[in-house]
Amino acid sequence: MLYCIYAEDAPGVEDQLIELGEEHWSYMDRFADRLVLRGPTLSEDGEEHTGSLHVVEVADRAAAEAFATQEPYWRSGLYGAYTADRIVVRQQTEISRESDATLVTARWDGRPLGDFQEVPGQDALAFFGLLLDDEGVRSVGCLAVVRTVERKDVDALVDALTEEIADEGMTVETRRWCRGGRS
Fold first, then answer.
1. Where does the YCII-related domain lie (predicted)?
2. Which domain holds residue 131?
3. Rounded to an integer, what distance in angstroms lies between the CA atom of residue 34 and that of residue 54?
4. Cα-atom radius of gyration of the chain, to the nearest Å?
5. Residue 16 lies in a domain
6. E strand spans, 43-100
7. Does the predicted model carry a pTM greater than 0.90?
8. How does pLDDT run across 49-68, given as a tens digit for each residue?
9. Contact assessment for residue 108 and residue 133, using Cβ atoms and an 8 Å cutoff
10. Three-class DSSP category at 61
11. Secondary structure letter of residue 105 according to DSSP
């Protein structure tokens, strides 16, 4: 099963992240063949690390939570919180390391998977996946990588997504993001 794991940095940990970098990389190397998407989220100006995203193939929720909590940054208290959601990938293309992108995470009340036949704004996306409930039968959100950090382009995609979903309780977060990994 694929799980989307997002861990948010605790405040003021930049120096410790650098110090533990090799330990983090060594841990991630153990999952290299199962990582579908990974990389750090960044401050709006791209200068500071704010969290980490990993989409990884694991056996079940317990394995996803173990992946998150055995990660060296988590064990050292450098992450403040994490989420782990099942995900089904609907679109994935090559993502450049040369420029930052925008990570869009939306959450809504559960909806049947059949409600999503088309990916909104797909030309602007490098990645799109639906977040699922634990049973894998209802969509509870989505994760998208938009190929730009230009606010007007990101806003246009969010508007299209909001119109497609039309759920009053929907929340949307955008974060600057870049593709991660050793190479």
1. 1-82
2. 2-177
3. 10
4. 16
5. yes
6. 49-57, 79-92
7. yes
8. 999 999 999 999 999 999 99
9. no
10. helix
11. E
